[in-house]
Each structure stands twice: as structure tokens, then as C-alpha cells.
């Protein structure tokens, strides 16, 4: 089983990817040596030697063919093997481990520490935390993300956990629907992600109070309530790294594969697939933390996004600076 | 047990595209799909070479490895076949294949709606019952079940394209190389068969 990529060293794979990327960039320059002239010359000096032709066969360059279609003039493209090694190797293996470890860790944390309860008594007075627009954008992103996450995980890992249990026929049926859903919902997720960035950008910029949150690690371990603005530093991290950075990367790389009709080469789509897989797995792992905090992890958090309103006691405990600003009429935001 | 392979002799191929036509006609392949094609290198200059290319039925086939629904499989003779019923048209086999063999009836369509993958079956049909109408409609003729070899090679006017048991192909090719004293490379063989056979 020398071909099991998992057994290869990570360094060799890294080296392969780097040289692959290098070749992608320098391929055009190398072809400038005019292999046709080399072959003509070789035919005169060594009529029995076709070495220039064999170099061209393996070059990945397009040659003449009457058959029309994507890259039909290419005889051998070697990058496919590298893509296969990365996708079936580290992305499946380490990605799979990450997607098992993170939920387990969250489950253990919940079992040991439990939910963050509201300490003070609810006042009964409610204040608006999210506008209707913000909630529509949030749930639009959330629903499309969960659908894409589940179908995407099945496309990469389904053959490892669905097929052995239910058989390939069930997997085939599920993925026929799953791939269609993934491909048609994907662009919608991209639109929602952009709206999300627009909606929440203003309150996710750095504030001096965030340094206190970082110093006390959000009070996660101590259980202490750390004052913060409308969003604390943890939420801001999720906004910038999760929603914005990974969200845009995953949506963009997805579009490269979703619309192959713009003349992308196989190399383009292989690279997009690698980026999409790594980005999506990291995004799913981070989202599990966000979903935990927004549902069972913090009492009252789910209601705030469901109804748009929070109790004043909740606001004072979790986002004291924001609470003070709203009370002083300085917030300008729900 | 035989190990079926293709071999295209670049010293003999004259780019007549007879193999392409024979394949399309035998299997009634839909518009836009070509299971086989001929590529010419240095067209029109001294030393030009043409090569016929289709699925090479690789050992350790990359398409088999990356298929998310596990519908591509290899027979005991080494022929790579697929079950169209479970194909979702994701295109991963096309990403992975060194030879550009997997084809899609809708081409590179928006939203990745390519349709079900189609490729050379080594004239061995698919998982349906041998010689059935359902098999013909999805995969084309099953000549192997009738005791015949792939039609592209059978029809090749210069016998550049050979199909059959690897040992016999190698025998014929070695004899040719010895007689003519050149053209020792069986193009694509290292890419297709350079690895050990996948464990079944």
C-alpha cells in the first residue's frame, strides 16, 4: 500500500505542492524554448530520437486536435495526481480529525463547565440588540451555511462514513441531491456573506476595551464577566477570521468550481478545491464554537438573535459598554 | 488473468481519426462527448507525431480514488468502469485524470450541471446485464462480453493503436521496436501503468 498518501511524509507533499505551484507559474516561460524547432533539429541529427516529442507529451501544453472541449489538446496533465494526494491525504485525514475533535472538546467543556447562566435576576425590561435586517442576514447566512456544510462534508467524507454503513447506492442518491443543493445554494451563501460583512462591520472594529477581554481570555475559564462593546473580542475574531476571511475564501473558491464554463483549467479547479476544502473545514470547526455559544453555551444568546431583543440584565452582564452607550443614547445601533 | 491495456504506437499513428469515428459510431456516443481523441504534436513540421488517447485504464486509477460516491471501479482484467446511476457529475475524475478521459454530456455547464460522466469502457459496457438495452444506452456496446476487442484498435488502419492483454501488446511492440530500431517509448505507459495495481 505504498500509494496511501497518509503514509507519505507531510514534507514531501508540501514540497510537491510548492513545486507544482512553481511549475504552474513557470510553465509558460519554459515552453518558450520552442520544442517544435528542437524536434526538427533532432530529426536531422538523430532521426531515431524523439526525445523532444516525449518532453512535449509530458509538458501539459495543448497541441493540435480536432476534438473540441476543455483542454482536449493536452495529452498528460500531471497535477491531477498532486491534487489527489492532497485531497485524499492530509485534507481528508487531518480535516476529519479536526471535525471530530472540536465537537468532542465542546461537548466535554459543556459537560464540565455547563452553560454561562445569567447571574442577576431578569429585569423584565427588554432592549433591542439586532435589527430585522441583521437577523434576516444572519439567519440567511446560517441556514445556507449549515446546508452547505452538511452537503460538503458528505461530498468529502461520505465515502468513509455513509457508504460503509448504508451502501454506495444510498450515498449516490444522497449526493446526487446534495451536490445539486450545494451548487445552487453556494452562490446565495456568497451574497449573504457580503451582506453580513456590511451589516456587522461597524461594530466589529477594534476598541480599547478589547484588550481587557484578551488579557482575561474572555473570562471563559474564570467565569468572570468581562465588559465589552456590542460585540466582544471573541465575537470580533469570529467576524474577521470566520465570516469575513474564511467566508469569502470559501465562497470565492467555490464559485471557481461551480462555474467551470468560464474556461478554467483543471489546474485552476484543483487549486480551488484544495483552498475550498481547507477553508471550509476550518470554517466549520470555528462555526461549531459560534453555534455552541449562540445556543446552549450562553443563556439568552439564542433569544437575542431569534427575537432581536435581550433583557437589560443580560445586556449589562455580557456587553456592559454597549449597554451604557445605549442608555446614554450614544450607540446609534440597536 | 489478462491485464487489458491500450498501446498507441506514435511511429505509426497517421492521425486519420478512424479510432475516434469508430468509437462514436459503435457506442452511439452523444454530441459533444468524445471518448477517444487524436492529438498531434508539432503539426506540419518534420518529426511531427500523433497519438490516440482515451481512458488508459490505469493501475491505481486516480479517478477511482477521488470519486466521492465510489461508483468507479476496476474489473479483474484491469478495465476501469463506472456506474452512471450513482454519478453526481462533480467532475473530480476529470480533475484527477492525467489523460482527460472523463467526458460530460453538458460540458462545463454553469452550477456544475455537467450531467453524468461518460468515458471509454474498453468496449466492456457497465454494471448492467451484459448486452442488455439498458447497458447499451448508458455505456455503449459490450464487445468484451462478445469475445471481441475494443473497436478503435480493431479498426486502426496502421495498427498503431493496440488493445488487449498487456503481455501480448508488449510482445508485438517489442518486436516492432527491434525491427525498426526506433520508437521505444509506449507513450503514457509510465503515467498509466507505472504504479502498482490497486488492491482489490
UniProtKB/TrEMBL annotation, chain A:
<feature type="transmembrane region" description="Helical">
    <location>
        <begin position="271"/>
        <end position="293"/>
    </location>
</feature>
<feature type="transmembrane region" description="Helical">
    <location>
        <begin position="91"/>
        <end position="116"/>
    </location>
</feature>
<dbReference type="Pfam" id="PF01292">
    <property type="entry name" value="Ni_hydr_CYTB"/>
</dbReference>
<dbReference type="InterPro" id="IPR051817">
    <property type="entry name" value="FDH_cytochrome_b556_subunit"/>
</dbReference>
<keyword id="KW-1003">Cell membrane</keyword>
<feature type="domain" description="Cytochrome b561 bacterial/Ni-hydrogenase">
    <location>
        <begin position="129"/>
        <end position="307"/>
    </location>
</feature>
<feature type="transmembrane region" description="Helical">
    <location>
        <begin position="238"/>
        <end position="259"/>
    </location>
</feature>
<feature type="transmembrane region" description="Helical">
    <location>
        <begin position="136"/>
        <end position="155"/>
    </location>
</feature>
<keyword id="KW-0813">Transport</keyword>
<keyword id="KW-1133">Transmembrane helix</keyword>
<feature type="signal peptide">
    <location>
        <begin position="1"/>
        <end position="31"/>
    </location>
</feature>
<keyword id="KW-0479">Metal-binding</keyword>
<protein>
    <submittedName>
        <fullName>Formate dehydrogenase subunit gamma</fullName>
    </submittedName>
</protein>
<keyword id="KW-0472">Membrane</keyword>
<dbReference type="InterPro" id="IPR011577">
    <property type="entry name" value="Cyt_b561_bac/Ni-Hgenase"/>
</dbReference>
<keyword id="KW-0249">Electron transport</keyword>
<keyword id="KW-0732">Signal</keyword>
<keyword id="KW-0408">Iron</keyword>
<comment type="similarity">
    <text>Belongs to the formate dehydrogenase gamma subunit family.</text>
</comment>
<keyword id="KW-0349">Heme</keyword>
<dbReference type="InterPro" id="IPR016174">
    <property type="entry name" value="Di-haem_cyt_TM"/>
</dbReference>
<keyword id="KW-0812">Transmembrane</keyword>
UniProtKB/TrEMBL annotation, chain B:
<dbReference type="InterPro" id="IPR050954">
    <property type="entry name" value="ET_IronSulfur_Cluster-Binding"/>
</dbReference>
<feature type="domain" description="4Fe-4S ferredoxin-type">
    <location>
        <begin position="78"/>
        <end position="107"/>
    </location>
</feature>
<keyword id="KW-0411">Iron-sulfur</keyword>
<dbReference type="InterPro" id="IPR017896">
    <property type="entry name" value="4Fe4S_Fe-S-bd"/>
</dbReference>
<dbReference type="InterPro" id="IPR017900">
    <property type="entry name" value="4Fe4S_Fe_S_CS"/>
</dbReference>
<keyword id="KW-0004">4Fe-4S</keyword>
<protein>
    <submittedName>
        <fullName>4Fe-4S dicluster domain-containing protein</fullName>
    </submittedName>
</protein>
<dbReference type="Pfam" id="PF13247">
    <property type="entry name" value="Fer4_11"/>
</dbReference>
<feature type="domain" description="4Fe-4S ferredoxin-type">
    <location>
        <begin position="45"/>
        <end position="77"/>
    </location>
</feature>
<keyword id="KW-0479">Metal-binding</keyword>
<keyword id="KW-0408">Iron</keyword>
<feature type="domain" description="4Fe-4S ferredoxin-type">
    <location>
        <begin position="4"/>
        <end position="34"/>
    </location>
</feature>
Amino acid at each position: 500500500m505504498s500509494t496511501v498518501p497518509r503514509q507519505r511524509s507531510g514534507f514531501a507533499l508540501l514540497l510537491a505542492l510548492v513545486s507544482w505551484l512553481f511549475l504552474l507559474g513557470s510553465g509558460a516561460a519554459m515552453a518558450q524554448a520552442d520544442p517544435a524547432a528542437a524536434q526538427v533539429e533532432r530529426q536531422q541529427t538523430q532521426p531515431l530520437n524523439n526525445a523532444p516529442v516525449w518532453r512535449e507529451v509530458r509538458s501539459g501544453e495543448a497541441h493540435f486536435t480536432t476534438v473540441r472541449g476543455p483542454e482536449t489538446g493536452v495529452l498528460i496533465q500531471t497535477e491531477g495526481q498532486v491534487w489527489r494526494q492532497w485531497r485524499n491525504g492530509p485534507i481528508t485525514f487531518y480535516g476529519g480529525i479536526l471535525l471530530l475533535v472540536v465537537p468532542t472538546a465542546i461537548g466535554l467543556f459543556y459537560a464540565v463547565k455547563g452553560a454561562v447562566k445569567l447571574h442577576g435576576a431578569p429585569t423584565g425590561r427588554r432592549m433591542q440588540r439586532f435589527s430585522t435586517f441583521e437577523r434576516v442576514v444572519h439567519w440567511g447566512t446560517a441556514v445556507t451555511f449549515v446546508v452547505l456544510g452538511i452537503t460538503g462534508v458528505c461530498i468529502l467524507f461520505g465515502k468513509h462514513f455513509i457508504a460503509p454503513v448504508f451502501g454506495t447506492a444510498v450515498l449516490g442518491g444522497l449526493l446526487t441531491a446534495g451536490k445539486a443543493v450545494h451548487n445552487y445554494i453556494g452562490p446565495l451563501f456568497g451574497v449573504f456573506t457580503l451582506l453580513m460583512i456590511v451589516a456587522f462591520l461597524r461594530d466589529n472594529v477594534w476598541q480599547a476595551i478589547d484588550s481587557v477581554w484578551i488579557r482575561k481570555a474572555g473570562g471563559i475559564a474564570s467565569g468572570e464577566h468581562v465588559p465589552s462593546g456590542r460585540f466582544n473580542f471573541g465575537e470580533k475574531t469570529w467576524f474577521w477570521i470566520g465570516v469575513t476571511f474564511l467566508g469569502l475564501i470559501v465562497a470565492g473558491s467555490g464559485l471557481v468550481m461551480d462555474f467551470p464554463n468560464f474556461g478554467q483549467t483543471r489546474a485552476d479547479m484543483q487549486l480551488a478545491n484544495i483552498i475550498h476544502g481547507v477553508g471550509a473545514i476550518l470554517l466549520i470547526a470555528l462555526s461549531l464554537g459560534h453555534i455552541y455559544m449562540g445556543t446552549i453555551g450562553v443563556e439568552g444568546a439564542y433569544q437575542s438573535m431569534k427575537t432581536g431583543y435581550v433583557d437589560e440584565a443580560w445586556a449589562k452582564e455580557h456587553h456592559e459598554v454597549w449597554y451604557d452607550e445605549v442608555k446614554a443614547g450614544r450607540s446609534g445601533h440597536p | 488473468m489478462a491485464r487489458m491495456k491500450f498501446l498507441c504506437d506514435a511511429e505509426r499513428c497517421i492521425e486519420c481519426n478512424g479510432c475516434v469515428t469508430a468509437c462514436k459510431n459503435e457506442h452511439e456516443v452523444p454530441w459533444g462527448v468524445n471518448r477517444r481523441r487524436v492529438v498531434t504534436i508539432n503539426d506540419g513540421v518534420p518529426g511531427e507525431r500523433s497519438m490516440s488517447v482515451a481512458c488508459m485504464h490505469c493501475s491505481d486509477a486516480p479517478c477511482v480514488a477521488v470519486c466521492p460516491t465510489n461508483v468507479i471501479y476496476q474489473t479483474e482484467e484491469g478495465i476501469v468502469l463506472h456506474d452512471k446511476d450513482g454519478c453526481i457529475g462533480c467532475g473530480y475524475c476529470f480533475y484527477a485524470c492525467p489523460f482527460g478521459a472523463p467526458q460530460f454530456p453538458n460540458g462545463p455547464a454553469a452550477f456544475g450541471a455537467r450531467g453524468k460522466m461518460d468515458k471509454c469502457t474498453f468496449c466492456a459496457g457497465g454494471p448492467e446485464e451484459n448486452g442488455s438495452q439498458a447497458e447499451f444506452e448508458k455505456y455503449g456496446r459490450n464487445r468484451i462480453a462478445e469475445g471481441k476487442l475494443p473497436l478503435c484498435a480493431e479498426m486502426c488502419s496502421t495498427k498503431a493503436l493496440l488493445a488487449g492483454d498487456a503481455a501480448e501488446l508488449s510482445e508485438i511492440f517489442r518486436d516492432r521496436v527491434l525491427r525498426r530500431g526506433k520508437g521505444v517509448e509506449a507513450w503514457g505507459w509510465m503515467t498509466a501503468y507505472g504504479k502498482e495495481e490497486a488492491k482489490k
